[in-house]
Amino acid sequence: MYNNSREFKEKTSFKCSYEDYMKCSFPKCDNKSCPHREAFRRLPLSTGGLGLCPNLSKQICDAL
Q1: What separation in angstroms does the CA of 57 have from each of 7, 12, 13, 35, 43?
Q2: pLDDT value, residue 60
Q3: Confidence label for 61 from pLDDT (cuts 50, 70 and 90)
Q4: 3-state SS, one letter per residue, for 2-62
Q5: Measuring CA to CA, which residue among 7, 13, 16, 8 is closest to residue 45?
Q6: Which one, of 34, 39, 57, lies nearest residue 20 by Cα?
Q7: What confidence tier does 1 reach under pLDDT thresholds 50, 70, 90?
Q8: pLDDT in tens, 12-60
Q9: Residue 62's CB: how many other CB atoms inside 10 A?
Q10: How far is CA 32 from the centre of its chain?
């Protein structure tokens, strides 16, 4: 797991921000029964995911 946004940008090719990534990071998710947990589709659209994580707000998903 990444400790900060700088490390996140240096070690990944994701286009989303560290903050958006952390919103849909499954180790921090309390919903153990979520069908999007541990799936790439949970990530924001800008990263190549489908933006299906319920923790991503509609406003963020629309902006991507």
Answers
A1: 24, 23, 22, 17, 12
A2: 44
A3: very low
A4: CCCHHHHHHHCCCCCCHHHHHHCCHHHCCCCCCCCCCCHHHCCHHHCCCCCCCCCCHHHHH
A5: 16
A6: 57
A7: low
A8: 777 888 888 778 777 777 788 888 788 878 888 888 888 888 877 644 4
A9: 9
A10: 16
